[in-house]
Amino acid sequence: MQNEYAIQTVNLTKIFKTKTQATSRRFTPRKTVAVNAVDSLNLAIEHGELFGLLGPNGAGKTTLVKMLCTLLPPDSGTAKINGYDIVTQQMDVKRSLGTLFSVGERGFFWRLNGYRNLEFFAAIYNVPRQKRRDRIMEVLRLVGLEKNAFDLYQKYSGGMKRKLSLARTLLPDPPVLLLDEPTVGLDVISSRNIRDFVQQTVRETGKTVLYTTHYIEEAAQICTQIGIMRQGRLIACGTPNEVRGLIKTSELIYIVVDQISAEQAEKLRSLPSVTKVSDNNDYVVGNQKGFCLELKAVDQVPAIFDFLYKENIKLVNFHRVEPTLEDAFIELTGRA
Amino acid sequence: MGFWAEAEKIYYFMKRDIISFSTYKTNIAILIATALFGALSFAFLGNSAVSQAVTQMYNMDFTTYLIIGLAFNSYLTQSLTLVQKTINPWALEEVLVSPTSLRTFIVGSSLWGFIWSTAVVAVYLLIGVLFFGVDLSINVAGTLLVLALGVGTFLGFSMIGAGILILTKQGDPVTALITIATTLFGNVLFPPQVMPPLLQAISYILPQYYFFTSIRLMLTGWTILEILPNLLVLALMFAIIVPLGYGVYAWCLKTARKNGTLSWF
């Protein structure tokens, strides 16, 4: 029977102990400080989901990935991959997983060509010998490296190295993929190729992907669910729209009017629904200048229109701005 | 996972290393030249006191004694660093997340090094036979047994050194200590019996002494029964050091994983 969740963590915690740095030349004993890299993390990712994990540097994303792939033992809590416990059923977890590390290109053997590198990993990932060659060529074709299969790895570009990492991750055809910053340091085209490939893989094969990234719009673009981590904790989780909605406390409405007097602008400021009005007619839409209003909620817009009508102010342009996922990210991760 | 599946993984570790190694052509030439010159230059060494002691104790000339010592010293020295060479932190992480056991990883990563070391030993011995009249009468079974025990014991030391290196990140005292002890007290360049009794005592607690004594005798026509006491001591040390080394390596690896310092180098 298939487990309900492909990835599930319950109160998963990892604490690192570090020593404080010496602050003066005089001898002062260094203290040991405990840092909760991952702090009571509860996460449930369903099968076939492309889950984007966002967070600033040091949020605990890579630590989480390393725990899920059994490289780091947790200090408390539990986690399951495809129903297997990451502590007590490590071999089953490893057979269920493909992991791409953010510095994955260093795990290859530079004096071997791409094919020979994958041949080695196919062997240690138990890809059956009879199917090995076909499978290697298949994943190389999938990531677009078929023509470079027999080039030395040391001659690969950054994008090609990352693609080979992705090919290695797919080699044993695991049901769950952990992709730790797969596009970091890549150019726009290589990043887009990898994003498209991941999205297509999830769509066509039903694999579950945990995709960590710094690039917010990247996550918004391809992920079905998003989680935001901060100081080891999951502080927001949901669809990109739901996460955006978490900070939807006010609406930005841009209104361009034909002419408005200083007195009328002051009246506009005093309306109960208006939280902010720009000082000048400096907001530009095309070749028009106008005001920028911030409202408490979008349903207050009719009251504004009513005011403009009564004051005989001609409305030239109007549009509403949704908060972006980046706004949500900054607000959520920046909160004290 | 069955034996053949594990053996196949080990084969692929070795294949990877052979391909990598074969690309360093200059390095291969240097290694062979070092072996050649080492054998040629050291073979001229020797003083009469040591020569006499060697003849009395081993019934062989000093050149034969020295060439066998040098050949297998390079073997053991290479064995000592084999496991350390496998702990490139990034490659280590990639292998550790695969469904491959630690045992297969260690054996697979070390195998090519042993095969290459065997080739270097063959070069030393060949030069000895061709140019210095080294007379070998090899007891094949005995030689293989002594080699297995000696190399296994040194692999145990190598695992201890590699384990410490995983934690300390730079330098391990075990490898340095074993290398110095081998040269001074290991019966490599001269028999410990020519040293003062106190220093001789150090030799007798080292597996190197029993290994070099046994391998020389196995290569010059002695039987296993004739060197049984030596072999038993070596076997006892093997039985202690190999599990100890594996345990230390596994513990250090576990500790580094727990502390999250595996990829710190």
Description of the structure:
The complex is a heterodimer of chains A (336) and B (265). The relative contact order of chain A is 0.13. Chain A has a six-stranded mixed beta sheet with strand order 6-7-8-3-9-10, sandwiched between helices. Chain A contains eleven helices and 15 strands. Chain A folds into two domains: 241 residues, Rossmann fold, CATH 3.40.50; 74 residues, Alpha-Beta Plaits, CATH 3.30.70. Chain A is α/β, with parallel strands linked by helices and 336 residues long. With 265 residues, chain B is an all-alpha fold. Chain B has one domain. In chain B, 78% of the residues lie in helices and 0% in strands. Chain B contains eleven helices and no strands. Chain B starts with a helix and ends in a 6-residue tail after the last helix. The mean pLDDT of chain B is 83. Chains A and B meet through strand 1, helix 2 and helix 3 of A and helix 1, helix 5 and helix 11 of B.
Short descriptors:
A: 336 residues, alpha/beta, Rossmann fold, Alpha-Beta Plaits, six-stranded mixed sheet, 15 strands, B: 265 residues
How are the SSEs ordered, and which strands pair?
The complex is a heterodimer of chains A (336) and B (265).
Chain A: E1 5-19, E2 32-46, E3 50-54, H1 61-68, E4 76-81, E5 84-85, H2 90-96, E6 97-100, H3 114-124, H4 129-142, H5 158-170, E7 176-180, H6 188-205, E8 208-213, H7 216-222, E9 225-230, E10 233-238, H8 240-245, E11 251-257, H9 262-270, E12 274-277, E13 283-285, E14 288-295, H10 301-310, E15 315-321, H11 325-334
Parallel strand pairs in A: 3-8, 3-9, 6-7, 7-8
Antiparallel strand pairs in A: 1-2, 1-4, 4-5, 9-10, 11-14, 11-15, 12-14, 13-14
Helix pairs in contact in A: 3-4, 4-5
Chain B: H1 3-23, H2 25-42, H3 48-58, H4 62-85, H5 89-96, H6 102-131, H7 140-168, H8 173-185, H9 197-204, H10 207-219, H11 228-259
